[in-house]
Structures are given as C-alpha cells and as structure tokens.
C-alpha cells in the first residue's frame, strides 16, 4: 500500500538492454508470454513494485533507434537526453538504472540500489588474414632459417663444382648448373626412397639428413596445427585503469565512446594522479567518439581500440553477439545503480521498502538477465542447419 493514494506510476521505456527487451515481438511488451519470457530487468522489477503498491503503470515509449538512445548526461549543469522527461515531469521514472554520483545527485533522488554491474573492457580478436598462413615460419628463429638457406646455397654451389669437375675428369656430357641445383633442392624437399649411393659414408649421410629433415618438418607442422588450435591471447594488455592511461600515453590503446563526458573526466583524473597531462595526450590520441553503437563496434576493429562498458548497458549486450569480440573482466570496479526520480517524489520511501523486501527476487532477476539472457543472445559456434529434409531452428 502507498500512503498518498497515488494510483499511477508513469514510466518511460527506452530500447536499452538488459533493462527493456526491445527484441520482443510487438515491442513494447510489459507482460510476459511464451514468445517473450524476457521483458527486461527494469520492466520486471517495476512490475513487481507496481503490484506491491497497487499502482497502474502508465507507459511512455521512447522511439529512439536501439543503440542510439541518449540515456542522459549533465552538460554544464543542464540535464539532457531522456532524463529531461523526468526533470520536466513528463514521467515519474525511467525503466533504466543510473549510478548515484556527482553528475546527477544534485538534480535527482535515487532509489535503493537494484543492479550491481561489473565493468568490462571490449576488444576485437585481431585476425592475421593471409599472413596467418605463413605462421609456421615462426616455429624456428629467424637465424635458424637463415642458416638453413645458407646451408642449401653452399650445398648447391658445392654440387655444381663437383658436377663440373666430374664432367672434366670423366669426359661426360656437361650438366647444366640449374639441373644440378634442382636435384639438390629436390633432395632437400623429398625424402629419397632408396639410398642410391655406393659408399657407406654416402648412405650414412643420407640417413642423417633424412632424420634431420623429418625433425624440421614435424616441428613446422606441429607449430602450424597448434597456432590454429590454441586460443589467441586477449588483446587487452592492461589490468586496471592506471595501466590503461599509461597505454594511452604510449599510443597503444585507443578509447572509443559514444559520449565524451562518460570517461573523459575519469581518465583525466587518473592521468593527474600519475603525473600525465591527458590534454596533451588527447592531441595525438584522442577519445574516438562514435554516433551510435553500430559505428562504435565497427571502430572497435581498429588495432588497439577498446570500449569500456558495464554489463547493464545495451552496447555490451550487442557486442557479445559478435564472435570476434573479447571481454576482459576485473579491470573496472563493481558499481551499483538505482532507479531515478525527481527530488521529493512522494512514493520513493515506499518503493525503497519494496526493494528492500524483495532482495532475493532482485537477485534472481539479475541472474536471469546477466547470465541466462546473456547466454541466450551471445555468439555461438555455427551448427548444421539441415539434416535431410528437416530444418533445425536455433533459438
């Protein structure tokens, strides 16, 4: 029950995973069915709060394109984005959670924390393209390959000299030098089936050479197979934000963002503690600003590019659908976020009471969306699509 006889809760729904599942058929949907069991974390939780307080939800739909939602910012003291709808009283709250920090706490009131998000660094697994086919050369050091080449050249020159001397001594028809070189090269590449030598020393040298050749070839093939079996190392070469700022200074890491204010102030603060002038760094390695999520993920394919996201943000859920995207955890600290209201909203104490009493249900919802829903949409290895005349449909 609520003590103010308020019967409606006006909520703005914006296409933003995992809070509002805009992929449901007939979006917006605020009641689950068989085709859409995952309404969204905030949709489910606001439904619970409304039911406990006998409130009717009055939905307002944000028609922005998924991935282009301006979820709000504080620009020189002015609130912009979808948060303007709360400021001007169009809605009471938004089906999305916000961090209670200096950007917003002077303008809004926050509920008790409802979502605990883990930070992720997103990067692309760089492909070697055509050069990957020559990776087997890396099985031996460069000096070893140079030694093998020099040895082959010396053997070829010596064979040409011996063939020339043999021609003069035995008065045989002269053999062209290219044919002699070809025979030696062929011997290097192909194992002889028989030891065609009348001398014991010749047979022994061929045997030793064959064993050495087998060792080289097996080493090359093993390295080639292992290079395709072993998972490549994570392209994110830093373990915390301080190391990231140092990597930015060295131009090894490039930050991609959709809103400059999101990470710029934090990066400048870390740079100041390290004695790094980030304004100077921005002159040659600025934060790359994209127009939307699609463009940001495309920019991520540039070597050294990373995106910083928490697992309560739409871009993170879109990124994990790409099989080339690698995520690194434990770089950013855990953060907690809450529903946002205008200051003095009369139902906030009652909403906080419901949130406190529904702690176990909130944890279940977090597992539902941070684990089950994420696994449902994450990239999976392709499987056979057809067996006979029967088509297998992947959910």
Automatic annotation (TrEMBL):
The keyword Transmembrane applies. Keywords: Membrane, Transmembrane, Transmembrane helix. It comes from the Eukaryota. The chain crosses the membrane at residues 144-163, 206-226. InterPro entries: T25E4.2-like. The keyword Transmembrane applies. This is (pine wood nematode) hypothetical protein. The lineage of its organism: Eukaryota, Metazoa, Ecdysozoa, Nematoda, Chromadorea.
């Amino acid at each position: 029950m609520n003590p103010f006889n308020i019967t409606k809760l006006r909520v703005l729904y914006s296409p933003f995973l995992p809070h509002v599942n805009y992929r449901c058929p007939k979006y917006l949907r605020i009641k689950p069915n068989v085709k859409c069991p995952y309404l969204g974390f905030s949709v489910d939780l606001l439904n619970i709060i409304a039911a406990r307080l006998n409130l009717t939800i009055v939905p307002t739909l944000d028609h922005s394109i998924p991935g282009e939602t301006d979820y709000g910012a504080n620009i020189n003291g002015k609130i912009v984005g979808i948060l303007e709808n709360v400021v001007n009283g169009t809605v009471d709250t938004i089906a999305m959670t916000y961090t209670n920090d200096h950007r917003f706490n002077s303008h809004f009131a926050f509920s008790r924390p409802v979502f605990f998000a883990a930070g992720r660094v997103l990067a692309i697994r760089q492909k070697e393209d055509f050069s990957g086919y020559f990776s087997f050369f890396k099985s031996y050091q460069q000096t070893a390959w140079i030694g093998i080449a020099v040895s082959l050249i010396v053997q070829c020159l010596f064979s040409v000299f011996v063939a020339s001397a043999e021609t003069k001594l035995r008065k045989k028809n002269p053999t062209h030098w290219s044919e002699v070189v070809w025979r030696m090269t062929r011997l290097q590449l192909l194992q002889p089936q028989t030891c065609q030598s009348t001398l014991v020393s010749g047979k022994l040298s061929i045997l030793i050479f064959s064993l050495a050749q087998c060792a080289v070839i097996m080493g090359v093939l093993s390295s080639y197979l292992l290079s395709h079996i072993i998972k490549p190392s994570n392209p994110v070469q830093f373990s915390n934000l301080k190391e990231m700022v140092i990597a930015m200074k060295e131009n090894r890491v490039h930050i991609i963002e959709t809103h400059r204010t999101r990470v710029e102030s934090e990066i400048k603060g870390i740079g100041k503690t390290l004695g790094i002038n980030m304004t100077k760094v921005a002159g040659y390695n600025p934060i790359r600003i994209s127009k939307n999520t699609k463009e940001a993920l495309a920019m991520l394919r540039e070597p050294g590019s990373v995106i910083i996201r928490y697992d309560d943000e739409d871009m993170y859920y879109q990124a994990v659908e790409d099989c080339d995207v690698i995520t690194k955890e434990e770089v950013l600290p855990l953060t907690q976020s809450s529903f946002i209201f205008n200051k003095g909203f009369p139902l906030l104490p009652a909403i906080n009471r419901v949130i406190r009493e529904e702690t176990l249900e909130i944890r279940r919802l977090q597992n539902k969306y941070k684990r089950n829903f994420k696994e449902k949409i994450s990239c999976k290895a392709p499987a056979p699509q057809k067996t006979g005349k029967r088509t297998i449909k992947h959910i």
